[in-house]
Amino acid sequence: MLNRRPAISRHFLATVLIACLPTANIQAQNYPAKAVRVLVGLTAGSASDVAARLTASILSDSLGQPVVVENRVGAGGSIATEAVARSTADGYTLLMMAAGDTVQPALRAKLPYNLLQDFAPVTLVATGTTLLSVHPSVPARNIKELLALARAQPEKLHYGSPGVGSSAHLMGELFNQMGKVKIVHVPYKGAADSSVANASGQIEMNFPSLVSVAPLLEAGKLRALAVTSAKRSSLVPQLPTIDESGIGGYDRSSWYGVIAPAGVSREIITRLNTIIRGAINAPDMKKSFNNQGIEPQTNTPEQFAAFIKLEVTRNIELIKLTGAKAD
């Protein structure tokens, strides 16, 4: 009897340990058993929305379940972000994160979520081409002429954005600060509203994504002066950068990536990352992204987490520099 006790104890312990294993592994093996939602904090038709819908098609084909895009607009994208943070950590609710989401921690001290702690990054998906556009009535054909016009008429020109704290808002604030001008910010409910206001002449200037205003540019209802990134875009190589056009050092880029609530199993995060990275880099899918004015760019969950942290740090510095404040 004494010799059997250790064996019995070991057997009992092993049984207990197996019974106590987390259900995450089982859930990961069965994932997904139902539809997956991808929330977007910006309006339908925005570059973020387009990236989400292309990514949803990739996931749906590979996962064998519907992947539905849901737009929850408002508060600079933080409404959708909060909804994902509060959702069950089972991989069925994801967020198409945009560059503007990394502005919110710097802009709002009392966010209902912690961007660096409450989420599990999956992968960067794409970078977008963002323009500085003006209404055709604006007598400026380049950035230098726009700066001269703004300096001659302080606070007479207006630029739009999808809301306070959005990526476009910070682009405008940085343009003001580095260009030593005073162009008034006008927040709208979404990127589409801001672009329509620009095309109708309600505001003189805007920072839209290429994908959202391509038809307006072709119709001559808007005029693009430059791109906001440090390097020219391969999608519109004829457009100069703001940096090379009169404001040296100017660099603000738009980007989009998938994140999940913290606590989603590593197996699910890895699977989503593998599916997205593999499909996006295929020639046909890359072409689909490019046709929509965005360029595929992926990375590992760890790389994306480090990138998000760096963006938050940079935006904290920019907010301090510009003095931008939430409404």
Report what the structure shows.
The structure is a single chain. With 327 residues, the chain is α/β, with parallel strands linked by helices. The protein folds into two domains: 33-128 and 254-322, D-Maltodextrin-Binding Protein, domain 2 (3-Layer(aba) Sandwich); 131-245, Periplasmic binding protein-like II (D-Maltodextrin-Binding Protein, domain 2). The chain has 13 helices and eleven strands. Strands 2-1-3-10-4-11 form a six-stranded mixed β-sheet, with helices on both faces. A five-stranded mixed β-sheet has the order 7-6-8-5-9, with helices on both faces. Helix 7 links the parallel strand 6 and strand 7 (184-187). Helix 3 (47-63) packs across helix 11.
Explain the layout of strands and helices.
Elements: H1 4-19, H2 24-30, E1 36-40, H3 47-63, E2 67-71, H4 78-86, E3 93-98, H5 104-107, E4 119-128, E5 131-134, H6 143-152, E6 158-161, H7 167-179, E7 184-187, H8 191-200, E8 205-206, H9 210-218, E9 223-227, H10 242-245, E10 254-261, H11 266-280, H12 283-291, E11 294-296, H13 301-322
Parallel strand pairs: 1-2, 1-3, 6-7, 6-8
Antiparallel strand pairs: 3-10, 4-10, 4-11, 5-8, 5-9
